[in-house]
Amino acid sequence: MLYCVCKSFQQETTFVYNGFDQGDRIHLQGGARILPKKDVLQLTNATTTQIGRAFFKQPIEFNPSEPISFSTHFVCALVRVTEVSSHGMAFFVSHSTDFVGAEPSRYFGLFNANESASTLAVELDISKALDVLDINDNHVGIDVNRAVSVQSANASYYSDKEGRKIDMKLVSGQPIQVWVDYEGTTLNVSLSPLKNQKPSRPLLSSTSINLTEIVQGRRMFVGFSGSTGSGVVNQYVLGWSFSKSMASLQKIDVSKLPKAPYPSNKNKYTSLVYDILLGLLAFLVLGLFFGAYMYRRNLYIECRRWITSLHKAHRITGPNPASRIDLVGSVVKPIGLTLEYF
């Protein structure tokens, strides 16, 4: 369900999606799609090295006299498809919807290794790429114009009840709440499980973010981007709320959110059957090799016994050991044979 208020560019823009049953204001690029009958926004499918983006069609604009600020709250889920390490997703604010030269994998479909992009991003990263100085394979980062984070931290949230940080697993498949608040030059990022309220302390807080300078103006687009590498993780957005001010940010109704799809049991069953058959085939091949080895070994032993017995049969010894005649290698025929002893 969508609630949207889009007034003149001097006034407020706010919207909320409790599921994406009405995604007509969402523009999709690459592998991104809204799953029919599930009301879920999926950024990438089960394809490697793929990019998927989704952003609000209408640009967010600020007049020269008003301060630039925004607040957004979204619920996402990262569901692993393959055991091979893959990549996460990012919320972005950009001056354009055209990301020429952007690469998949560790660049989230927003950046590349060389050029600077006019983009602010909050990444949910599930891989450790040394070339972009990732701290681990389960972190949240603030990116300014490139994939090297200006600030990052292990995925966690502050529990007001317990008075401490509690670690979170980003690729658990469970829904995760993310809040991004920007005002002045301060950007705060908070995480929590779906059942929790917004933490009183943010996970990340950067006080040197100049959004006007980053997006080169007072007009910008907001959305999500995801990518895959050699491995695949399905990146889902279940709900999204955005406003130009924190005070007017609409709450997401978590009771109305769709469920994150999981790989079907049929696929799991097929994979299990395939693994079992592959194991049986390997066992059969090893059995054949072992059987062939034992057959050749037994045949060799029988041949040795036959040669030994033949050797004994052809050795004829007279009464006197000194008068022994050896017929090794001779052919003994059943004919009259006279032996003379010397």
From TrEMBL:
<feature type="transmembrane region" description="Helical">
    <location>
        <begin position="272"/>
        <end position="295"/>
    </location>
</feature>
<keyword id="KW-1133">Transmembrane helix</keyword>
<dbReference type="InterPro" id="IPR050258">
    <property type="entry name" value="Leguminous_Lectin"/>
</dbReference>
<dbReference type="Pfam" id="PF00139">
    <property type="entry name" value="Lectin_legB"/>
</dbReference>
<dbReference type="InterPro" id="IPR001220">
    <property type="entry name" value="Legume_lectin_dom"/>
</dbReference>
<dbReference type="InterPro" id="IPR013320">
    <property type="entry name" value="ConA-like_dom_sf"/>
</dbReference>
<comment type="similarity">
    <text>Belongs to the leguminous lectin family.</text>
</comment>
<keyword id="KW-0472">Membrane</keyword>
<feature type="domain" description="Legume lectin">
    <location>
        <begin position="13"/>
        <end position="258"/>
    </location>
</feature>
<keyword id="KW-0812">Transmembrane</keyword>
<keyword id="KW-0430">Lectin</keyword>
<protein>
    <submittedName>
        <fullName>(rape) hypothetical protein</fullName>
    </submittedName>
</protein>
<dbReference type="GO" id="GO:0030246">
    <property type="term" value="F:carbohydrate binding"/>
</dbReference>
